[in-house]
Specification:
The protein is mostly helical and 267 residues long. The protein has ten helices and no strands.
């Protein structure tokens, strides 16, 4: 049984220990592989989501947790050793399983956190965000000033405030162009689904689109495994939904389907 998480002072050490023990607890059950992946994706990842959002953890820790989760994903689904890893994280429209990528989840939560700080009704919280943004700009040598920044090696890690500012610039540009008419239909004929999203949801949607594009670019590097890109429009988008994975496929059938599309079946 997975009990509520309680962390003390050593956040990183306890997070790594508890996360590994939870995955091992799921792995030791007699459930089929896809059901284990569902528990890890929908429950274990969500148990650490609050810690990933509240604390500014080192990227090395996030990558370590991601590698551990990724290894269990591959084991439970039965992917071939040489198979493209992006099949686990791509959307179902691109013949992916749409599993949670812990690295992207961490960055999305960090963006959400700083968005809450920036638009808080408390002036002190707004001042705190302004201070954090200025500090990150100094670390990255991106201060918008005519003065030449000091010659220091810029910080290459992830920065939540700078990522928020970048995404807001993309959304602002999209607001100017997405309502433009591009066909002969009447004005306002094509309603935009993005109009129904909140500001924070649109920021996360932009990050998801960028991540999806990176996964597709990674697939293009594989000559044989990337052939699915030629017939993706002809495939059913709901073939790999959770309901179909859990109840429509057996372990062997799901393993065969994924490896057959990627041309990694034994000949």
């Amino acid at each position: 049984m997975l009990y509520p998480v309680r962390f003390g002072n050593n956040i990183v050490e306890q997070l790594e220990s508890k996360f590994g023990s939870w995955l091992q607890l799921v792995d030791d059950t007699l459930l089929p592989g896809p059901q284990k992946a569902w528990i890890a994706n929908r429950y274990v990842c969500m148990k650490v989501a609050w810690i990933l959002m509240v604390h500014t953890l080192p990227l090395g820790t996030i990558n370590k947790l991601h590698r551990l989760l990724h290894a269990h994903y591959r084991k439970w689904i039965g992917l071939a050793r040489c198979m493209d890893r992006s099949v686990l994280y791509r959307s179902r429209e691109n013949f992916g399983l749409n599993f949670t990528d812990l690295r992207h989840l961490h960055k999305n939560l960090q963006v959400s956190k700083y968005h809450i700080l920036k638009y808080s009704k408390d002036e002190q919280i707004k001042n705190l965000y302004a201070h954090l943004l200025q500090r990150e700009q100094k670390r990255k040598n991106t201060i918008p000033s005519l003065k030449r920044p000091p010659r220091k090696k810029p910080y290459k890690g992830f920065s939540g405030p700078l990522e928020l500012e970048r995404l807001e610039g993309i959304v602002a540009c999209d607001n100017l162009t997405r309502k433009a008419q591009s066909d002969r239909k009447g004005l306002g004929y094509n309603p935009n689904s993005k109009d129904k999203l909140s500001d924070r949801e649109r920021l996360i949607a932009v990050r998801k689109e960028e991540a999806e594009h990176k996964w597709k670019v990674l697939s293009l590097k594989y000559v044989m495994q990337g052939e699915w890109l030629q017939y993706t429009d002809c495939m059913m988008a709901d073939d790999l939904s959770w309901g179909r994975i859990l109840w429509g496929y057996s372990d062997r059938l799901l393993k065969f389907t994924l490896n057959a599309v990627a041309n990694t079946l034994p000949s």
